[in-house]
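job 3f2a | input accepted
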Amino acid sequence: MVAIITGASRGIGATSARTFAAQGAKVVLAARNEQSIQAIRDEIRAAGGEAMAVRVDVSDTQSVESLVKETIGKYGRLDAAFNNAAGGPPPTPLADLPVEAFEESLAVNVRGTFLCMKYEIPAMLAAGGGAIVNMSSTAGLRGVPGLAGYVASKHAIIGLTRVAALDYARQGIRVNAITPGPILTERLAGLEASDRERISAFVPMGRIGKPEEVAATAAWLLSAQASFITGEVLSVDGGRLASGA
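job 3f2a | predicted structure (245 res):
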């Protein structure tokens, strides 16, 4: 399997690259931070895996098109994609949020997901089919104070996912989304222990999730084990949405 992973320079994206490679996939690490993805590429290769690194800005049409072309040029096909790149400003009340900050959230999260699928899908059709997982969030299924751009964009990703799933269901391409809750990436890891404990208190399972748990979910959705699943939104949140918290 040849798989593109955007936002692969850190956090869930980097962990997913390692997970996919360990399962035998040829991974294409894509992110703006070229130095970071090259380091992860080298790590995967040292462990016996196959990987390449491509600098990409997912909000830029030419950059995304080039990412897919380079993937095909290197491996001859594209089978899977984890469109994980995301961005957003710090919490800000809606009326105080600069227009530019709102638009940046949409550019990376919504336009980026759209562009990735726009160029990934034809490549997958040429290979006879494939699977895509888009990164949304529990914030894509409910409101969160102060996160107007992020919440709006993550809701939009779910809509894009369902449309793409319906558009290509009969052509052998599956498209699903995952909605993680609080996950121990760099941002949460940098908080004080007391702050992490307060976050954990809102999770029915009583803890913050691990990047490896999200990566495993994405890998499963991209695999043949999920062959009859498309248009689905799968939460990885320790029961938080179920609790209404």
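job 3f2a | The longest helix spans residues 99-126.
job 3f2a | closed
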